[in-house]
Design goal:
Distance between the termini: 20 Å
Strand content: under 5%
Number of helices: 14
Number of strands: 0
Helix content: 55-70%
Bound molecules: iron/sulfur cluster
Largest sheet: none
Radius of gyration: 19 Å
Structural class: mainly alpha
Length: 278
């Protein structure tokens, strides 16, 4: 490989690492809290490692990033530091008026970040998908159902739940939010696994139930990072659509392409394309 080829290959991991390092240093200095330096440096480095391994064609590159980030957030931030990083935690901090923990996490990973890296969170960091992706149905075995409306119900329920706790002025809110995190995650895993087997689709939970997609989908519509198709090379073999876990019509370059806001940037389509068209 030429020198410029090597530089191009590692430009994406380097850019990703720099973005996270900028966030880390900015939050560290503005919030006077060194935790942010550690937190975002760790996440940025983990993602960069995943991307570098991908460039080196390591089969499980994405899984490595998923486990490095997912277990850190779930085990360290959630279970050890008792931060509710679920959507309930976001509502909780928002209603408390505190720009900390879950609010910052949501702002970076799920609200403004998707304008740059789309649903990269869903492909490389989510601790729910980290487990679901281990199940046997990596690409869906059935046509997609029209059940996407359920995500709006779970989204509304999460807000109503936290608002009700605030209105009732219950004591020990921090403790309740920790238990909500534990119970919520158990429910997510249980529903996710059952749905994956019932519909023969690992990502069924992401497609129909996950409330976070209410933020992710509209923002990722404008994503800078997206897979596009070189029409001159494409022979319409359909392999890309067949392997796509999210049913995206990646051969259509328009932003309105079928399931375009579902793309998790897993690059399975790119790997499967026989003509290097993606
Ligand atoms: S859709 Fe929800 S559960 Fe699925 S990967 Fe994204 S955030 Fe995780
Ligand atoms: S296979 Fe391609 S289009 Fe489908 S989610 Fe992965 S990157 Fe996106
Ligand atoms: S796999 Fe490649 S060649 Fe086949 S339809 Fe998709 S983009 Fe075109």
């Amino acid at each position: 490989m030429t020198k410029s080829g090597r530089i191009k290959r590692f430009a994406l991991p380097a850019a990703m690492w720099l973005i996270f390092e900028t966030i880390a240093v900015t939050l560290w200095l503005t919030k006077q809290n060194i935790f942010y330096l550690f937190n975002f440096s760790y996440i940025g480095t983990s993602l960069a490692i995943g991307f570098i391994l991908f460039q080196l064609q390591y089969k499980h590159a994405r899984r490595v990033a998923q486990f490095l980030v997912g277990t850190y957030m779930f085990v360290y931030l959630g279970l050890i530091c008792n931060e509710n990083m679920q959507i309930e935690g976001f509502w909780y901090y928002l209603l408390t008026g505190v720009f900390e923990a879950a609010t910052i996490h949501y702002a970076v990973a799920k609200i403004f970040g998707p304008l740059v890296f789309g649903r990269g969170w869903c492909g490389y960091a989510c601790w729910t998908a980290m487990i679901l992706d281990l199940l046997p149905y990596k690409s869906p075995q059935q046509p997609r159902k029209k059940w996407g409306f359920i995500r709006y119900i779970t989204f509304a329920l999460s807000f109503v739940f936290v608002s009700a706790l605030f209105l009732a002025q219950v004591n020990h809110m921090e403790r309740i939010m920790f238990w909500a995190f534990l119970v919520g995650n158990c429910m997510y895993y249980a529903v996710g696994v059952i749905l994956a087997f019932a519909l023969k689709d690992n990502r069924a939970f992401c497609k129909y139930i996950c409330p976070i997609t209410v933020f992710l989908k509209p923002m990722s519509y404008f994503s800078l990072m997206r897979v596009t198709c070189d029409k001159n090379k494409c022979i319409s073999c359909g392999k890309c659509k067949k392997v796509c876990p999210m049913d995206v019509d990646v051969t259509d370059n328009s932003r309105k392409r079928e399931n375009g806001t579902e793309c998790i940037l897993c690059f399975e389509c790119v790997k499967a394309c026989p003509k290097d068209a993606l």
